[in-house]
Amino acid sequence: MPQKTAPLAVPRPKRLPVDPYIALLLSTVLVAALLPAKGSAATAAQWATNGAVALLFFLYGARLSTREALTGLRHWRLHLTVLAATFAVFPLLGLAARGLVPYVLAPQLYPGFLFLCLLPSTIQSSIAFTSIARGNVAAAICAGSFSSLAGIVLTPLLAAAFIGGGSGISAHALLDIALQLLAPFVAGQLLRSRISGFLTRHRTVLGRVDRGSILLVVYTAFSAGMAEGIWHKVPVPRLAELLLVEALLLALMLGLTSYGARRLGFGRADRITIVFAGSKKSLASGLPMATVLFGSGAGLAVLPLMLFHQMQLMVCAVIAKRWARTAAPGPAPGGESVAVGAEGATPSGAEDAAPGGEGAALVRAAAAPPAAPPPTTT
């Protein structure tokens, strides 16, 4: 009797790892372009956005464990290195990019590009990629917490100093930051001990609230941008040039953090943490901040951030998987309490409010084992 042969398995081409939430954000931009809010609808959307931003930062404050951050102070050299990369090296590169205007970088895109360089680091995706690459997970948690706490104060101040009133950032905008962002954040921190159980029990629902709130922020910002005619101000070739400049920025930061961490004598696990925490920027913090700081110009201001966010996730997913293959066997330093790729899951609720777990699809792709070879025929 002839022996049956196993069917030949045709390997499927790998899909481009696009973060589903980025696709949702881009869809929201398209809706705002086709059906922008106007008149009384625009006013209502703006009031709803103000409330959504306050709610977002209240939840950030309630989720962020300052106790874990304070516990991590013993690793102060690592945290200072990450903070220096985030709030010193990044801004300096952003300021240096002024020399590319108007030849390579469009003048109307430069304020958003510089704003991107002033933002805090991510929390969740930095932790997840650090865990995949077998870095120091505990240090990544603390570094992300420190960066977020510092960003609440430093980002608006740096934006006012470096971007200035020419882009609509004024003393009034800084007061709005205090009222709409800082006050809810502090309130969340003060109430954390009382509502942490509620946040844990309803994490999935609150994650959807996060996602919906940020989509509302994007819709309102781009609706206002449509009234300003932003798409007529930015031709497609200028967007391509922006992508090239952002790719160079990311490559420089990955190289500088890696080289600097090595020269400072950090071990492999700590170097991984510094690279991932020091080279990335938070979409979750940047979108609501831009709405408050730039007002009607927020649509154009957040465009560089949205593009950079997707780029950093794709590149870091590849790097994390490569480093994971070269890591020594055993658990990641600092414990393996990170639920990699789980929606909204991070240790002790230290979530970057980027919806669905910032870059969750890319994290899952990076963490996935290689596909099994096709069965042999006989």
Strand content: under 5%
Distance between the terminal alpha carbons, to the nearest Å?
A: 13 Å
- The succession of helices and strands, N to C, reads HHHHHHHHHHHHHHH
Helix content: 55-70%
Which regions have little confidence, pLDDT < 50, spanning 5+ residues? 335-357, 370-378
Structural Rg: 21 Å
Global shape: globular
How does the major sheet shape up? none
Please tally the β strands and state the result.
0
Number of helices: 15
Mean pLDDT: 78
The chain-level structural class is: mainly alpha
Description of the molecule:
The protein is mainly α and 378 residues long. It is 69% helix and 0% strand. It has 15 helices and no strands. The longest helix is centred in the middle third of the chain and has 31 residues, at 171-201. The radius of gyration is 21 Å and the shape is globular. Residues 335-357 and 370-378 have low confidence and may be disordered.
Name the features:
15 helices; disordered C terminus; 0% strand; mainly alpha; 378 residues; single chain; globular
Topology:
Blueprint: H1 20-34, H2 39-63, H3 66-71, H4 76-96, H5 110-117, H6 124-132, H7 137-162, H8 171-201, H9 203-228, H10 230-233, H11 236-263, H12 268-278, H13 283-294, H14 298-326, H15 360-367
Helix pairs in contact: 1-9, 2-8, 2-9, 4-5, 4-7, 4-11, 4-12, 5-14, 6-7, 6-12, 6-14, 6-15, 7-8, 7-12, 8-13, 9-13, 11-12, 11-14, 13-14, 14-15
Please summarize what this structure is.
This protein is mostly helical. It has helices at 20-34, 39-63, 66-71, 76-96, 110-117, 124-132, 137-162, 171-201, 203-228, 230-233, 236-263, 268-278, 283-294, 298-326, 360-367.
